[in-house]
């Protein structure tokens, strides 16, 4: 399903981060996690960490997130690691998105630096409602 990011004007950084995480979830990112890191670092307020199944999936997750956030007039300020495909970082200023391959996520273990994990069950429930609604509104094709 094609998830669109709603207008982000007048949204808090946490609300924006949850919308970015939702795109990664919709694109089948694995173990998408959101952390408030304001007490850990001065460079950003939130980390989003996700895993892709392969380097191709990692690149696809990063590309789709960049495209969709740009469409919502919230493009990343900078993208690192696009050519490698094992760890891509999208820097949105107050939000940094880390998309890893499985081995790289385990090796770097950024979660150990993050103390305040934010519950994304509301985002997951919203995504499931949207997916369910989209499936119910699709018209069956005529297979004659």
Could you describe the 3D structure shown?
The structure is a single chain. The chain has 144 residues and is α+β, with helices and mostly antiparallel strands. The chain contains 4 helices and 6 strands; from the N terminus they run H-E-E-H-E-E-E-H-E-H. The chain has helices at residues 13-26, 55-71, 102-108, 121-137, and strands at residues 30-36, 46-52, 78-80, 87-91, 95-101, 116-118. It has a 6-stranded mixed beta sheet. Strand 3 and strand 4 (87-91) form a beta hairpin. It is globular. The mean pLDDT is 89.
Sum up the structure in keywords:
alpha+beta, 6 strands, 144 residues, six-stranded mixed sheet, 4 helices
